[in-house]
Amino acid sequence: MNSIRTRFAPSPTGFMHIGNLRTALYAYLFAKKNGGQFILRIEDTDQERLVDDAVKAIYSTLKLANLRHDEGPDIGGPCKPYVQSERKDIYKKYADELVSASHAYYCFCTKERLDTLVDGTGNRRYDKRCLHLSPKEVQEKLDAGTPCVIRQNVPSEGVTTFSDMVYGKISIENKELHDNVLLKSDGFPTYNFANVVDDHLMGITHVFRGMEYLSSTPNYNLLYEAFGWTIPQYVHLPHIMRDKHHKLSKRHGDANFEDFLDKGFLPEAILNYVALLGWNPKTEVEKFSLSELVEAFDVSGISKASAVFDEVKLRWLNSQYLKELSPQRFHDLALPRYRSISTPVNVNLLSTLIQPRISALSDIPEVAGFVDCFDGYSLEMFDNKNAKSSAQLAKEVLPAVIDTLENADTWSNDALFGALEQLTAQLNLKKKQLLWIVRIAITGQLSTPGGASEMCVLIGKELTLKRLKQSLSRLCALCG
RNA sequence: GGCCCAUUCGUCUAUCGGUUAGGACGUCAGAUUUUCAUUCUGAAAAGAGGAGUUCGACUCUCCUAUGGGCUACCA
After folding, report:
1. Distance measured from the CA of protein residue A313 to the C1' of nucleotide B27, in angstroms
2. Does A77 fall in a domain?
3. Which candidate in A250, A287, A432, A461 is catalytic?
4. In this model, does residue A190 exceed pLDDT 60?
């Protein structure tokens, strides 16, 4: 059985980053496209950087994104445990094996000595001093309990070449490589070691990870070779950038998945957008469900250059998804965002009006702001050359509008629109002229989630008339 | 500093030696419309620079520039 296995191996050091999410997505897509398994492994070997609840965030993100793993800490599997801190003895065993074969060695150098190894350019390169300790000396130090690490013994000559499925063939001279620490003095492995051991033991066939690991991949291959293990296929991914110069980072606010959910983006839209950042489906289709992505995904479409995250385009995609939601589903999602509205309005109607007009749920307070906030809007809003309306015209026409609406006995959109249409004819105006004025006069907002008659229905007869009168008196005060 | 990687419209990208360099978001301009919004049509907008290779280069090679990454007992 030679099935494809990919893994997502985050370290629980904070929220789920958008870049991490994309790495998980691609690994998932590739596995599923090829009928393989997608494994979740928690890389918690840095005990100092652990963040409470970070593991919880990983689970919840994968769940919300609908990226279901086949094996992992929570659901088990044949390669358990899937948490690196629970695998310490495994790493120790393999590290010792490497030491016996001279591919690794104990190092007792102190931080102070290491600091003396800095070269002219400020870089530090270990000088292999402890490699030359005799077995007896090593044993003595070990027996004395001297703190130590295990280092990889990298050959100082030759070239290590590997082939990446995205970046192609890459060669690095061994003399550029460092004798990386494999096992830390606290007994935990470094990423540099744990990822190799675990990827092998867990049968990972394709390694998806950020391109920052490109330069250390030769170190890993040397390890695979020392063990005599099969080297996996590598799929290094370009970075997602905040702008031309900066990677998306946790430090800069809204770079993580949960923040985007809070902003009112749908998980499907985020996933769809992120999939397209650095990968192209080779068709002109841009909207993909998860299963369509599985179908369409191909490593050959992954680009080498980093991509700038564009929230404006995400908003566009999100608006597409929002429009497709059933009215009930949309209403359920929007409801929590109406909490801040104190004026009683028909929220069902509000949802109906808003659904096709917003691109993120977080737009709701702004779009519906007029419901509560009306006083003091700028009277210049009446001036609109496209609608051929003006504040002056508004002042002249509003009394008739008030009269018409006061006498409206049915307060429905059809009835009100009909009444206003009739008034338009009476006054010898264009529909647009009058309706622009009415809409501004009762909302005080340039862009509203519906036309004039719809806004009247939304806020009700009483408030409509109150606001019309209020607007009229302000206009009179202004124009004299 | 050394090493690795990258470089097409503002942004995401197509092009795998011969194209009027295509699409999408955004922008702008028109049109449609039961009022806001939608929708539709159109426009502006790109191969970092320089050498080669070639009949011909965005595409291949080299150099330079710019950007990013690595250079930790972080991942």
Report:
1. 13
2. no
3. A250
4. yes
